[in-house]
Design a protein that fits this description.
Blueprint lengths: L8 H6 L7 H28 L3 H20 L6 H21 L13 H10 L1 H24 L6 H41 L9 H18 L3 E8 L2 H8 L1 H18 L5 E6 L2 E7 L3 H17 L2 E3 L2 E3 L3 E8 L6 H17 L5 E2 L4 H14 L1
Helix pairs in contact: 2-3, 4-5, 4-6, 5-6, 6-7, 9-10
Length: 371
């Protein structure tokens, strides 16, 4: 069996903190560093001519740091630290600019950018935690600023302040609602991308990703597991004789049967066509064989009803054991696949393994008797 490299979509999206994947967040951060660095250098020049040399010096320092970030952000293992450092510094800088004696009213527009940047780079929870305090602080500074504007009537003061509060609140709420809806849509995307539409089981990519994770966990804990390949016997005959509707019905019934019998720790997926695969975690070869043998009997005894008639199907299983039959996913798949076809050549409706289950069971019984 050809073992393809399937990305673990569920894991990737789970670790994504926002609507952007990690590489996209890095690209956005790099762009923001570029814009910030260039802008700070321009503003530093303007501040110098405006009589604020200390502000100009601060802007030059942080502009230089922004250019350093441009060079390092794509490959830095401390990306989250860069993001937090950037946002905390940027938001603090917005507040400082607003506090300047000759601050322009246009400077307060930057308050509305806070939730956008925080939510995009940090996600819903952390974006809210970071942006809300700065938004409140910005509104307070704006309140103080309006109080110092000469000739501003009480009505104009209230109107201007409420405009800022309303716009800021709406921006915060809109970004929060967007992130909630995005997370829900992302979860649906994960389910669709990882689920076989016909049976509701894991699809091929999901199963292979789970197998790779199971191997990594077993390497750490040294817990044995079994990989089982399963094929419905004479499935083509069912399709040819009764039509594809009957074939789909059989696949759904088999999928339900597999889910009913397996333990909560086990994992099952449909690889395609009439081929299924199972991962039996924390189980020794004999116990795995007994579980699959029972499953084979349940499938053979299951009565299916279609078009007013009853019929049954059988299945053949090929089993590989980790680590005895291999420690890598492609090797385990190959061994299980070989046993599967060996079982088919031997007459189907059986479980084929690397060991003789009868001999192993006899040895276990003898060992128990001696004890």
């Amino acid at each position: 069996m050809d073992m393809l490299n399937h990305p673990d979509l569920g894991k990737a999206l789970t670790h994504s903190r926002s609507g952007l994947r990690d590489d996209h967040r890095r690209s956005l951060a790099r762009f923001l560093f570029w814009v910030t660095g260039l802008s700070l250098m321009v503003f530093a020049t303007l501040q110098l001519f405006s009589g604020y040399p200390w502000v100009s010096a601060v802007e030059v320092v942080f502009g230089t740091l922004a250019f350093v970030g441009v060079a390092r952000i794509n490959h830095s293992p401390h990306f989250e630290r860069w993001v937090y450092g950037y946002l905390l510094t940027l938001f603090s800088f917005f507040i400082v600019i607003m506090l300047l004696p000759d601050a322009s009213m246009a400077a307060f527009v930057w308050v509305l950018m806070m939730p956008v940047l925080a939510y995009l780079l940090l996600g819903r929870r952390e974006g809210m935690i970071l942006s809300v305090p700065f938004m409140l602080l910005g509104c307070i500074v704006y309140f103080i600023f309006l109080g110092g504007v000469p000739g501003l009537s009480t009505a104009d003061f209230v109107i201007d302040f409420l405009n800022m509060v309303l716009c800021g609140s709406l921006m915060q709420v809109f970004m929060h609602m967007y992130e909630i809806r995005r997370e829900e849509a992302e979860q649906r995307l994960i389910e669709v991308a990882q689920t076989d539409a016909l049976t509701g089981l894991a699809n091929r990519g999901n199963f292979q990703s789970t197998l790779i994770r199971t191997i990594a966990e077993s390497e750490r804990s040294n817990a044995a597991f079994a990989l089982v390949m399963m094929d419905i016997d004479h499935f083509k005959v069912i399709n040819d004789s009764h039509g594809h509707e009957a074939g789909d019905y059989v696949l759904q019934e088999i999928g339900q049967c597999l889910q009913e019998r397996l333990r909560a720790t086990d994992f099952v997926g449909r690889l395609g066509g009439e081929e299924f695969s199972l991962i039996l975690r924390d189980v020794q070869p004999v116990a795995a064989y007994e579980l699959i043998e029972e499953l084979r009997q349940r499938i053979a005894a299951r009565k299916m009803h279609l078009g007013g008639s009853d019929f049954s199907v059988t299945a053949t299983f090929g089993m590989a054991q980790w680590p005895e039959d291999g420690r890598q996913a492609d090797i385990l798949f190959s061994v299980a696949d070989q046993h599967l076809y060996r079982g088919k050549r031997a007459g189907r409706n059986q479980v084929a393994t690397s060991f003789d289950p009868l001999t192993s069971q006899s040895n276990d019984a003898a060992a128990g008797g001696e004890g």
